[in-house]
Write a structure and sequence with these properties.
mainly alpha; AhpD-like; 9 helices; globular
């Protein structure tokens, strides 16, 4: 049961419905976590703006999904694990890669560095070491891409918090947490 109201098409204000129409146009659906965000149109606009900016960067979609998967598992957000498993599959990640990402790594050497860096950022509230920064640079990531990884970590922690705090109903194929 949702602990925070889901804004539906039936109870949405004109502003909320306008945001839903834009989301529907891009995704073909309005995921439940965005319906939770819509309780504050300002928060939803802010999230969509950040998501839009982050989507323009140099990181490939698979790396973004790998980061989302590791953080969702790390933060025990079943909604986000379920959503990013489905999105990751659409992005071309196979079951073995998704399992590796959820465990905090990747079978791809360069992506493994990004996933481990993202995991450390989240575990240490951004307090990564010089050794970790050197490792991510040595893996081939530019300072711009490092900033993008940090941005994706922040966005994913935000969505993990929304998912966990609201206990939003999962509207993707349900995936159990590894720790469950």
């Amino acid at each position: 049961m949702n602990r925070i109201n889901l804004v539906t098409d039936h109870n949405a204000t004109q502003e909320q419905q306008g945001l839903f129409d834009a989301i529907q146009g891009q995704l073909g659906m309005v995921p439940n976590f965005l319906r939770v965000f819509a309780n504050s149109p300002a928060a939803l606009r802010g999230f969509l703006g950040l998501h839009s900016i982050a989507a323009e960067g140099g990181l490939d979609l698979q790396t973004k999904e790998r980061i989302a998967l590791t953080l969702a598992e790390q933060n025990a957000c079943q909604y986000c694990v379920s959503a990013h498993t489905a999105i990751g599959r659409k992005a071309g990640l196979d079951a073995a890669e998704i399992a590796a990402n959820r465990a905090g790594g990747s079978r791809d050497v360069k992506a493994d560095a990004a996933v481990k860096f993202a995991r450390s950022l989240a575990q240490n509230s951004g307090g990564v070491t010089n050794t970790e920064l050197l490792a991510i640079r040595n893996a081939g990531y530019s300072d711009g891409e490092i900033v993008e990884i940090i941005t994706h970590v922040g966005m994913n922690i935000l969505t993990n918090m929304i998912g966990r705090a609201s206990q939003v109903a999962i509207d993707f194929p349900k995936v159990e947490l590894q720790s469950a």
